[in-house]
Amino acid sequence: MASFEKTFTLHVPSSTENLAMIRDFVSSIGARAGLDDAQVLRLALAVDEACANVIEHAYGSEQFHEVTIHGELDNDELSFVIVDTGRHFDPAHLQSESVEELVKQRKSGGLGLRLIRTIMDDVQYRIIPGEKNELRMTKKLHKD
Amino acid sequence: MPSKFQVTQRPHGAACILAIEGFLDAHTAPEFEKAIEQAVQAGNVRLVVDCARLTYISSAGLGVFMSFLEDVRERGGDLKVAALDANVYQVFEVLGFPALLDIEPTVEDAVTRFEGA
Fold it and tell me: How would you class A111 by CB atoms within 10 Å of its CB: exposed for 0-12, middle for 13-18, buried for 19 or more?
């Protein structure tokens, strides 16, 4: 098969009301990549979680910022890169409490990142100080 | 084009049913949270969330379940989940919720569990 690469980009204001649009964008690319309905839904969930984190935490729910989602599709994998210019966080520092502990403490933080890590094959976070933050998540299309 | 979500409440035997419909994400979770809060404030601690028409859930929605679970249990009640679609159930499962929550196949089953308690 000849190699190919396609990129897609969506810019949206940083409001949770745009999460539905983001999921539609991701679902279209997932379907184009040949994923089945259940896989497409999980992919949309992973990107939804990442974007909701950006909107609520990086931008503190301020709606006048921008969230950029790049979809990159090639023969072997599908990646989404979420770009923001808000407060950065280091996922490595996120506490790995059990869900039982979180319930006792009435905390739901960190669940989204757990979902992202479960759904995607690779997750990388890059901070470019004073410029932007990038969360890159990749799904392999043909697993051995 | 925000996410479509709706929650309706009805009494059913010993329980209060909250039927949720559509997409439960970070945008719609506050509406769900408000509905549960109102039900609990009205004295309902035996809650069944009917998910038969729920097509999507993200962690923001799961967080709402988490935030009320201990409260209603401390008051002698429970928050049970019923009629989950396979894709939605998978999200609950990935995060280990089946070990924390009583998830029943139907609303009737969930209500019966309360009546037998």
Answer: buried
